[in-house]
Fold:
Amino acid sequence: MINHTDTSVVTIDRFIIEQEALFPEATGELSSILYEMAVAAKMISSKVRRAGLIDILGAAGSENVQGEHQQKLDVIANAIITKAMDHGGKLCAMASEEEEGIIEIPPQFKCGKYVLLFDPLDGSSNIDVNVPVGTIFSVLRRVTPGPGRGALEDMLQPGLQQVAAGYVIYGSSTMLVYTTGHGAHGFTLDPSIGEFLLSHPHIRTPEVGKYLSVNDSYEQHWSEPVRALMRRYRGLDQRREAMNVRYVGSLVADFHRNLLGGGIFVYPANRKSPSGKLRLLYECNPLAFICEQAGGAASNGQERLMEVVPTELHQRSPLYIGSKQDVAIAIQMLEDER
Structure:
C-alpha cells in the first residue's frame, strides 16, 4: 500500500501500478483501461475548459436514444472516449448512454475480456451556465466466450459484477474518483503538468449526512410515502434534524459533494417516470459501487441497487444514494410501496 504523506506526489499511474502489485495474478489489462480512461478525461476536461471560448456550446441539433437533445460537448465527449478505448485490445465491446446499441470494437483491433459502459458527459445541459458536469464509467468482465466481439449479455450484468467504476467531475478543478473494489480514491488534475495526482485516498463518507439533493419540482408527482420521506429529511416530522437542501441538477456534482461531505441524492420514481429517470448501467451502478466502497449505500427504494439484474441496455431506475443511515431511512419508509 502507498504510504501517503503530506509531501508525497502520487500520480494516478503510480497509484494504479502499486495497487496492481498487491495482486500477483493481475494481468495489467484492467490497469490499462483505467489509464486510458484517465487520458480521455484529460481530453474532455480540455474541451470543457474551452467551452466558453469556441463554438461548442449549446445543442448539436440531434437527439440521443433517450429522446433528449444532445449537446455538442456530449457528442465530442462520446467520440473521445470511444476512440481512446476501442484500440487497446482490452475491451470486447462498449455501450454509451448516447448510443442506441452496442459500440463494437473495429475489426482491425484485437478484442479483450472486458466491457465498458459510460455516460460521456452527465449534466451537459448545464454547460451553458458554467455548472460542473461529469463523466461516469463502469467496467465489467465479459461473460460470453471469447475471443471475439462482445454481446448484449456482457452488458446486462448486475452492479455486483463490476470490476471497476469511476467518475470525473469537471468543476473548479477536474477530479477523477474510481474504485476497483478496494476502496474509493480521488485524484485531482494538475493542469500545469497534465497529471492526475492522488488528493483523496481512501474516501469515507459520513454515516449520517447533512445534505439532501432532490428536485422538489416533482413533489406533485410523488407517492405519499416519498413525500413523507422528504418531510423526514427536512425535519418536518420532528424525527430528525433537518438536512440542508443542496441540488445542482448535475448528478456527478451533487453526488461528489455528498460523498465527501455526507448526504443523500434522491431521484424517486414518480407518476411521470414510474420506472425512475436515471440510467441503471451508465449512472446508478457505477456510482453505487463507489459509494459502497466509501462506506455509503445505494438503493432503488426496493432493494440494494447493485443486486438488480438489468434487462435492457438503457434501463432506468429510481435512485437513493449516499450516507448509509440516510439511505436506510428511505428503505424503511418506502416499505409500503413494495
